[in-house]
Recover the amino acids of this structure.
């Protein structure tokens, strides 16, 4: 029996046609999740299972399945690293939410008695920087809640603020490896180092500022009239924020100094959170009462946790992760990896990065992220593995990160705010400002070529 040393070209084989059809059908089913109420992970998981089933079956018919099995395991390892990283990050965010950190931030913003225009810029800049370390959907929904709360009497403000928040969130998540799935993929695959992403700070800032400046003049000039409710942080809240920073630091150290996966540092940080919760459990008085709703917390001092038995359960935080999204990415990654192993992505790569210039290819891929999930697109390009310089990898990271701002349904923050500000922020209201968002898209690309010319 002769071992198969190179992947078989199955692009014109029945297994290839079958796999391609299965992936397309699964992705279409995932896109219509809102209307069918079928969770998007279900068709993608099935597609990944079927694709690799037929691949290994064909290789076994050829007498050796070792190469196909090794390819599956390699891609599975990539997914596991991503899963563990996101799992720890989202666990910390859930812990912060339980300790009312985000509620306190929202109350603090609302209590500032600012004008609509001031709130527009403050929420935009805050979410721009916050999304570089916090999940984009979480950051977007937090600032969206502020916009809805202060703009209950001004639908125009809510609409413009939501558009601004979406653009700022996507832009802020593009200059940091921690900002989203697509940037995590690039960092995880070693195409860009941790600090390389910060070269995109100025282009991303331009991407946010161009449409924001245009929308500024359409905002109401007066101040909102709002009733301020107050909120109190739970005991240990500030220390959770500190431990999250330590955990991110460990991820960077494990990657840059120890050359281990960043997920290993995140898991070490999860253990620290577990020990801290154990400490809180042992030191929280059994008769702790729920903090009063009329107590305002803007600094200084910790208070007892409400319902410590539930609040301090680390596995409760893990159980509340977006498992449907995480399993969707398993199906998408493994399905795309299967199509790549069959040979389809190599054929697409020859068209995109062979017949077209890398710059044009990356711009077109970024524009397509308004319709297709950017994490899926980034993994597809990484699987193609085009031979392009660092400047082009940065350009791809930029365009895929900010391209989702073009449409309301182009990114997770957009979809989330469509539900949160229903009736005030709509698909059509976003589309109205699409021309200035596109202007910001191309302005950021131009600035990237200007300030990062040495990376090309």
């Amino acid at each position: 029996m002769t071992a198969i040393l190179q992947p078989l070209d199955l692009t014109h084989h029945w297994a290839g046609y079958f796999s391609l059809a299965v992936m397309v059908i699964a992705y279409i089913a995932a896109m219509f999740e809102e209307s069918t109420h079928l969770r998007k992970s279900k068709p993608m998981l099935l597609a990944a299972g079927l694709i690799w089933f037929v691949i290994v079956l064909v290789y076994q018919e050829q007498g050796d399945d070792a190469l196909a099995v090794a390819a599956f395991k390699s891609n599975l390892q990539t997914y596991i690293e991503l899963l563990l990283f996101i799992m720890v990050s989202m666990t910390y965010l859930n812990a912060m939410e339980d300790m009312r950190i985000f509620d306190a931030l929202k109350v603090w913003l609302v209590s500032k008695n600012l004008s609509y225009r001031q709130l527009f810029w403050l929420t935009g800049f805050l979410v721009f920087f916050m999304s570089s370390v916090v999940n984009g959907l979480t950051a977007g929904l937090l600032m969206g809640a502020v916009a809805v709360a202060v703009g209950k009497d001004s639908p125009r403000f809510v609409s413009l603020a939501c558009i601004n928040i979406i653009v700022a969130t996507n832009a802020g998540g593009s200059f940091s490896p921690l900002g989203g799935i697509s940037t995590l993929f690039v960092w995880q695959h070693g195409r860009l180092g941790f600090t390389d992403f910060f070269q995109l700070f100025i282009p991303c800032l331009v991407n946010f500022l161009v449409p924001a400046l245009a929308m500024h003049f359409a905002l109401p000039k007066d101040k909102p009239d709002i009733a301020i409710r107050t909120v109190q942080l739970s005991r240990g809240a500030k220390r959770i924020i500190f431990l999250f920073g330590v955990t991110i630091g460990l991820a960077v150290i494990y990657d840059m100094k120890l050359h281990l996966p960043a997920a290993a540092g995140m898991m070490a940080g999860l253990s620290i959170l577990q020990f801290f919760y154990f400490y809180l459990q042992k030191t929280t008085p059994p008769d702790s009462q729920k903090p009063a709703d009329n107590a305002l917390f803007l600094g200084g001092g910790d208070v007892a946790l409400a319902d410590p038995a539930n609040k301090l359960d680390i596995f409760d935080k893990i159980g509340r992760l977006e498992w449907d999204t995480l399993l969707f990415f398993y199906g998408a990654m493994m399905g795309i990896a299967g199509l790549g192993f069959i040979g389809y992505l190599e054929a697409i790569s020859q068209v995109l990065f062979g017949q077209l210039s890398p710059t044009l290819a990356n711009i077109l891929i970024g524009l397509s992220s308004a319709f297709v999930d950017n994490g899926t697109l980034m993994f597809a390009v990484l699987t193609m593995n085009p031979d392009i310089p660092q400047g082009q990898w940065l350009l791809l990271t930029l365009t895929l990160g900010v391209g989702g701002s073009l449409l309301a349904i182009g990114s997770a923050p957009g979809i989330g705010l469509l539900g949160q500000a229903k009736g005030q922020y709509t698909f059509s209201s976003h589309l109205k400002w699409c021309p200035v968002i596109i202007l910001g898209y191309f302005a950021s690309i131009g600035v990237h070529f200007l300030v990062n010319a040495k990376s090309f």
Q: What stands out?
A: The radius of gyration is 23 Å.
